[in-house]
Description:
Elements (H helix, E strand, L loop, with lengths): L4 E6 L6 H11 L1 E6 L4 H13 L3 E5 L3 H4 L4 H13 L4 E8 L9 H18 L3 E4 L4 H10 L5 E3 L6 H9 L3 E5 L6 H9 L5 E4 L22 H11 L3 H15 L4
Parallel strand pairs: 1-2, 2-3, 3-4, 4-5, 5-6, 6-7, 7-8
The structure holds zinc ion (ZN).
Zinc ion (ZN) binds next to loops.
Amino acid sequence: xxxxxxxxxxxxxxxxxxxxxxxxxxxxxxxxxxxxxxxxxxxxxxxxxxxxxxxxxxxxxxxxxxxxxxxxxxxxxxxxxxxxxxxxxxxxxxxxxxxxxxxxxxxxxxxxxxxxxxxxxxxxxxxxxxxxxxxxxxxxxxxxxxxxxxxxxxxxxxxxxxxxxxxxxxxxxxxxxxxxxxxxxxxxxxxxxxxxxxxxxxxxxxxxxxxxxxxxxxxxxxxxxxxxxxxxxxxxxxxxxxxxxxxxxxxxx
Length: 253
Ligand SMILES: [Zn+2]
């Protein structure tokens, strides 16, 4: 496959379908990894991947949604991921979230452990959400010896970002890099061989004056531009390295 720009994490079912695809094509974005967060969006993810060749399905279980599910419902969802393993490229969006008053940390760990074990069984990368649970996610993933990990929109300390890199995992530069010093530092200093770019569309629009949820995969170029500018590299060279990362981690074998 020819090199192209990649949006490694978005919620494409919430973007404007055909028009968003046309704008992505125009921008040279040829791979769009849409995330599933529950049974319904996992199914949508598969349909979108069948509909648009650019879209790659990920199937997951969002940590806060998981807290409202019974063990049996979780088993059914994980079984569904296993059944469709050949049609998906990664297990995402998954992880843990300790924001606000969410106190069920032990339950989240129990569920995330099942998810990680499934990803290992299927030999798929995990696309991990870790809001306010950065260290807990890293520790659990280390304990379970997870190898294929993409930490999405990681907001932990710089020392934890370095620990992620030392573990051989990946970090993303989201489109909000335009206004985030932390993501600018990732773009500038972390090894290019362990980076991806993402929009998290419809969230994280690169233009902070845009307050509607209208980010979309075409705008992932803003992340690539930040990396190229901060490193003094050619945009196409950044594109080619991140494409190689994708081939290494996600491409079907
Ligand atoms: Zn997301």
